[in-house]
Amino acid sequence: MNSSNEQAEMDDAEDFELADLPDDELVHQIHDDLYDGLKEEIEEGTNILLERGWAAEKVLNEALVGGMKIVGIDFRDGILFVPEVLLAANAMKGGMTILRPLLAETGVKPIGKMVIGTVKGDIHDIGKNLVGMMMEGAGFEVIDIGINNSVDDYFEAMEQHHPDILGMSALLTTTMPYMKVVVDEMVKKGIRGDYIVMVGGAPLNEEFGVAVGADAYCRDASQAVQTGQRLLQQRRAAAGA
Ligand code: B1M
Asked: Distance, CA 135 to ligand 1 centroid (Å)?
């Protein structure tokens, strides 16, 4: 076979309609498209599954969260890097935007709630956004309060949203100590025990997490998801005991 025939065959193989795929192959294709950060394809695949009568929760868990799990694992293992993960997260957001109102309508509860924001004096938000998106992908409701947050901003968000988890991000050695200011104020106000506090950002480490009084330091977004799930489970088990 000459190379132009080979190319034509490859083109044929890739030239298919998502709507022609049976459910299991479509879900597999959505996983692949999420991995490749193809937002339009994710939106199309999400709509097709919904049109076929899939419940929004099933689309979320099997197609989107399932796909994002693969992305998270490869990110953790150094196979995928930040730009690819941001694209995947953005593609996932496309699908989530379609599902979000349907999930709210059917009363499907998120597995937990998180408020996340970058600390005062710091405008870095790429890592925080990624953590927020991955947490959403894992089924958490995420309230992102943006950058440059003072103690008052965090307290206002906690009072308004009653999250299970408070997440703080800092990328500067000059701003990361502010996390302790927030935690100390929580202790002072007697509300520290009401929340799981997770911190992250490139200059932080485990030791720093302990020093500021957080429940956990998270190295990256996939660790934030795993840690959030684990700590929430532990808290609920302890509350039920
Ligand atoms: Co800035 N910057 N920056 N910067 N910047 C750094 C952080 C720096 C290390 C660069 C360097 O000099 N090598 C340096 C800090 C040095 C230090 O403190 N020791 C630095 C500096 C100095 C500055 C300025 C002061 C520069 C200046 O103006 N002279 C200034 C500060 C502005 C301010 O905040 N007040 C500044 C500005 C900027 C830009 C605006 C240009 C831009 C930010 C754009 C934006 O965020 N929208 C920027 C960028 C892009 C960077 C670098 C290059 C990349 C940061 C990033 O997005 N990484 C950065 C160098 C570096 O980190 N190597 C640098 C990708 C991101 C996905 O990773 O944020 O680590 P990261 O998030 C990870 C984990 O840390 C973790 O999960 C994420 C995903 O896996 N994580 C969490 C993060 N937050 C979490 C929260 C959690 C859990 C996990 O909560 C539960």
From this structure: 20
